[in-house]
Amino acid sequence: MPYVIAGRQVQVDAEPRNLNGPIFVPLKPVMQAMGGRADWDDASNSVTASFNGRTARVFENTPAVNVDGQQHTMSVPPFIDQGHTWVPIEFFQAAFGTIATYDGNSNTLNA
């Protein structure tokens, strides 16, 4: 699928989703492509993502994200579908200071 991360094209098994405005991406494969990690926690029903020394925790259907102990609020909440936790691309800016953009003409995510 069309993802460009750190200047290189990578394959991710799920395309970005445009849900009437917000663009969502599958968190774990995008984090892995960025060189980070994302792990599901059954006990809290959340995902903990780590990248560049920062850690963020997201919960399904909750727009709040905890980044290194500080609360940030996204415009829309993550959701779970087809075995992935989907986050809005604004998550990467809020959590890691990484700007992600989406090109609708080429259906490409740049991070």
Structural overview:
This protein has about 110 residues and is mainly β. It has a single domain, classed as 2-Layer Sandwich (Copper Amine Oxidase, Chain A, domain 1), CATH 3.30.457. Helix content is about 15%, strand content about 45%. It is built from two helices and 13 strands. It has helices at about 25-35, 90-95, and strands at about 5, 10, 15-20, 25, 35-40, 45-50, 55-60, 65, 70-75, 80, 85-90, 100-105, 110. The strands form three sheets. The chain has a five-stranded antiparallel sheet, with helices on one face. Strand 7 (about 55-60) and strand 8 form a beta hairpin. The longest helix has 8 residues, at about 25-35. The radius of gyration is 13 Å and the shape is globular. The protein starts with a strand and ends with a strand.
Kindly report the CATH topology: Copper Amine Oxidase, Chain A, domain 1
Structural class computed from helices and strand pairing: mainly beta
The arrangement of helices and strands along the chain is EEEEHEEEEEEEHEE
Instruction: Give the radius of gyration.
Output: 13 Å
Specify the overall morphology: globular
How many distinct domains? 1
CATH secondary-structure class: Alpha Beta
Main sheet: strand order: 5-6-7-8-9
CATH superfamily: Copper amine oxidase-like, N-terminal domain
What is the strand tally?
A: 13
Helical coverage, percent range: 10-25%
Count of discrete alpha- or pi-helical segments spanning 4 or more residues: 2
What CATH architecture label applies? 2-Layer Sandwich
Q: Which ranges are low-confidence, i.e. pLDDT below 50, for 5 or more consecutive residues? A: none
Average pLDDT number = 90
Task: Indicate the proportion of strand residues.
Answer: over 45%
Main sheet overview: 5 strands, antiparallel
